[in-house]
Amino acid sequence: MRMIKKGFLYQMTFMAKVFPVNCYLVEEEDGLTLVDAALGFCAKGILQAAERIGKPITKIVLTHAHEDHVGALDLIKETLPEAPVYISARDNRLMSGDRSLDQHEDQTPIKGGVPKKLKTRATIVLNEGDQVGSLTAIASPGHTPGSMSFVDNRTKALIAGDAFQTRGGIAVAGDIKPLFPFPAFGTWSKKTALMSAKKLVGAEPSLLAVGHGEMVENPVGIMEQAIINFEQKLK
Fold this sequence. Notes:
By secondary structure, the chain is of the alpha/beta class. The protein has a single domain (2-234), classed as Ribonuclease Z/Hydroxyacylglutathione hydrolase-like (Metallo-beta-lactamase, Chain A). It is 26% helix and 26% strand. The protein has helices at residues 43-53, 67-70, 73-79, 89-95, 182-185, 190-201, 220-234; strands at residues 2-6, 9-14, 21-28, 31-35, 57-61, 85-88, 124-126, 131-132, 135-139, 148-152, 157-159, 164-165, 171-172, 207-209, 216-217. It has a 7-stranded mixed β-sheet.
């Protein structure tokens, strides 16, 4: 595991050179908020990272319910049974195995794997604008119907899950990058993802942190270019 710190944010990367999977620890005065839970084998590394920082994980926040974002959740909860788990109200359904679509949603099948044996369920379901410590929830559907991003109110760092990727080149969810096409393969609705990407640019983040790829400082310009590139492909 590799760990990089920027401001209050620690990026933990597993399989960095082959198939990078990121999750994050957000430092608060009283502890750490874990954002996403990577893959099953990552639990030990996540817990060791918190030990190195010297603060307890007090909250667990999920950007969406795909297996590379919730994989270590059960093992972490065994160690931290008191830590509440947060996920969007919409992806709470997906985490429970419900792949049905609402009438207003793009009627294309939900893609990507959700662990069938996942035992842990959300303690608290989130809606847009809800606060989790220093983080504000931003609904950013597209990769999944209930994908959420989180902006740190102190620094404007944006944890965007798979709404964007930076591995293989920056891209909006659903835009296939030949060097790392996997997030695109798991994207439910390209047109919804594009709308969410525009919304996230509007937050004017100082830092972009994603599920797959390196963190990017002052990312607005390249996020805008990624949106333009995707719009051209979808025409």
